[in-house]
Amino acid sequence: WPGFAPDIDAILRLKRERDAVILAHNYQTPEIFHGVADITGDSLALAREATRVEAPVILLCGVHFMAETAKLLNPAKTVLIPDSAAGCSLADSITPSDVRLLRQRYPGVPVVTYVNTSAAVKAESDICCTSGNAVKVVESLGVPRVIFIPDGYLAANVAAQTKVGIIAWQGACEVHERFTPGDIRQLRDAHPGVVVLVHPECPPEVVAEADFAGSTAAMSDYVANERPGRVVLVTECSMSDNVAVQFPEIDFIRPCNLCPHMKRITLPKIRRALETMTEAVVLDPAVTDRARLAVERMLAVR
Ligand code: 13P
Ligand code: SF4
Asked: Which residues are recorded as binding iminosuccinate (predicted)?
């Protein structure tokens, strides 16, 4: 990554000086993902890996809820995020009082909360899930019905794979809600033989047109294992960029949508975060223990 070399060199040096580990989500740009990250993955992998980090400092390259999750699992460590304004339309779609109202409306029905939420919302929940384990988590509870928040499309896609009744909140990911079934049909017409992988935050009609739906890690694994000649990853743009670096022989077709929140994280901001040791994630003590429990219950589901 020649143009990025000065920042990358400085970050690699600062990482050693600060004894810091960089965790990066699959939607981070390639110079971050391949250039400076120690650990990469989907939301579930980043949460699991956060429990294994031994270094005293974690720098999370991703959006704020991911950094909060890392801090929940590592209360004694310093968890930095290069830009704390990196939000998420799903996390913004629901508040703790919304969850309390849902509980009043559906007494006794457990609340399954997608990790794309604030710690305060997690604290009102029984258990968390990611797109990588949502069906397993819902079924682990052994109940006839669950409240599933906040992604309405993920909820519908989970409902299609289980007999458990799903009461859904209607939040949406601003990146994935924009894909349409017509987009997929056009892609197939324009690129014969293309294998279509979609993220389950897409509307169910889009998932229905795909060859495979799965988390960002599941998409990577699909490409690595199946080695399609031509593939489209219907998701955030950096996903294809990162996977394509590893499989130059595969033809990646790229209509994609950028996540403006993920794109707030840049090499200069990572460098500054390590130079100044800001911005450190601080959790509200009133929600920390309950939020951690919901995440730990998820991690215990195998
Ligand atoms: P994954 O857990 O699949 O990485 O998804 C996170 C996300 O924010 C998708 O938009
Ligand atoms: Fe949130 Fe969607 Fe961005 Fe993922 S891609 S962080 S769900 S807005």
From this structure: 25, 43, 114-116, 131, 199-201, 216
Q: Find where tokens 């279509």 sit.
A: 196
Q: Is 199 annotated as a binding-site member?
A: yes
pTM of the predicted model as reported, rounded to 2 decimal places: 0.96
Say whether 173 counts as a known binding-site residue: yes
Residues 154 and 108 in one domain: yes
Q: Report the DSSP pairing between strands 145-149 and 165-168.
A: parallel
Characterize 110-132 residue by residue with b for buried, 16 or more Cβ atoms within 10 angstroms of its Cβ, and e for exposed. bbbbbbbbbbbbbbbbbbbbbbb
Decide which of 145, 172, 199 is a domain's last residue. 172
Total number of domains constituting the chain: 3
Domain range enclosing 200: 176-258
CA neighbor of 72 nearest in space, from 301, 290, 298: 290
- Tell how far the Cα of 105 is from the centroid of ligand 2, in angstroms: 28
Q: Does one domain contain both 28 and 44?
A: yes
| Distance separating alpha carbons of residues 260 and 222, to the nearest angstrom | 26
Tell me, yes or no, whether 300 lies in a domain. Answer: no
- What letter represents residue 42's amino acid? D
Reported as a single tens digit per residue, the pLDDT across 137-186 is 999 999 999 999 999 999 999 999 999 999 999 999 999 999 999 999 99
CA of 124 to the centre of ligand 2 (A): 21
Same domain, 166 and 183: no
Q: What is the ipTM of this complex?
A: 0.98
Instruction: Work out the number of other CB atoms within 10 angstroms of the CB of residue 164.
Output: 18
Q: To the nearest 10°, the Cα dihedral for 73, 140, 203, 234?
A: 60
- 231 touches 253 (CB < 8 A): yes
253 & 267 share domain = no
Measured in whole angstroms, the distance separating CA 282 from the mean position of its chain's CA atoms is: 20
Centre of ligand 1 from the C-alpha of residue 43, in Å: 6
Q: Does the Cβ of 236 fall within 6 Å of ligand 2?
A: yes
Looking at the CA of residue 173, tell me the nearest atom of ligand 2: 2
Residue located nearest, by CA, to atom 8 of ligand 2:
88
Considering the domain boundaries, does residue 281 fall inside one?
A: no
